[in-house]
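Appendix C: a fully annotated inverse folding record. The material below is reproduced so that readers can follow the format used throughout the book. The structure is listed first as tokens, followed by the designed sequence.
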């Protein structure tokens, strides 16, 4: 920020902020004349980024999007690749601004997010924001979950259990059932417990609008078979991936009963 300065890690003299390129995090020290690299943690703590992140999260959760947007802009002046701030800007442009555009959000989740590095605090802030914005983020579930699986294998199951159940329950068809999302659910199930997601996946065997249970139209053979292949079978495979023995037995048991019922109805529907 203007007027601020940073300590040269070599000679200890001050390097003014305007001599630092916040994209590369490199600044030329006026005393020792060397290029100095500032780790993101150093810049984050010296520029108060983490404190500002706290306010961004609070504004966002309170749906005070104007203030959240402004605070995020301030963060990006020094932390140009701060994922939480980038997300807030992109989200506001997609859902609260005029004109609304999803371009930033598409770019963030499809291109930028996989390349970003995070501090632990940045990651926690991003997770809180994503959970708060979840009802609007169903189209990006796979990108978000796979990025969390890669960056935070310890925390990904708890995150998914807060982020995904609503999204799964609100799916209006099974067109979102790509091999990638199933792989991601399986990967997370092998890491930890996401019982609410598993339950939502199970319930949607009956509740998803594409399910033959909804209108009792098992006699539509092609449609029923497609739902069975793209959804029912995949849910069973996710449950097979559950690492915790008790949880796996519980969900697999319920699933096998439901699967048998489905197969019975499918066979009756053909007669
Ligand atoms: Zn120096």
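Designed amino acids, in order:
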């Amino acid at each position: 920020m203007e007027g601020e300065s940073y300590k040269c890690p070599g000679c200890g003299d001050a390097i003014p902020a305007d001599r630092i390129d916040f994209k590369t995090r490199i600044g030329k020290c006026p005393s020792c004349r060397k290029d100095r690299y500032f780790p993101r943690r150093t810049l984050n703590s010296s520029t108060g980024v983490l404190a500002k992140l706290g306010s961004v999260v609070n504004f966002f959760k309170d749906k005070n999007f104007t203030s959240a947007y402004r605070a995020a802009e301030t963060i990006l002046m020094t932390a140009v690749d701060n994922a939480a701030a980038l997300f807030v800007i992109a989200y506001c442009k997609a859902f609260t601004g005029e004109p609304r555009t999803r371009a930033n959000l598409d770019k963030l989740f499809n291109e930028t997010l996989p390349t970003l590095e995070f501090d632990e605090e940045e990651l926690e802030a991003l997770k809180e924001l994503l959970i708060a914005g979840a009802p609007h983020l169903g189209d990006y579930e796979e990108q978000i979950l796979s990025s969390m699986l890669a960056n935070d294998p310890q925390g990904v199951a708890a995150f998914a259990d807060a982020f995904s159940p609503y999204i799964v329950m609100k799916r209006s068809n099974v067109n979102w059932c790509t091999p990638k999302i199933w792989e991601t659910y399986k990967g997370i199930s092998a890491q930890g417990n996401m019982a609410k997601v598993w339950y939502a996946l199970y319930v949607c065997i009956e509740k998803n609008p594409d399910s033959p249970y909804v209108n009792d139209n098992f006699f539509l053979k092609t449609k029923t078979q497609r739902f069975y292949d793209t959804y029912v079978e995949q849910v069973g495979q996710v449950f097979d991936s559950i690492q915790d023995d008790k949880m796996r037995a519980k969900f697999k048991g319920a699933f096998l009963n439901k699967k048998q019922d489905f197969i019975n109805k499918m066979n009756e529907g053909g007669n």
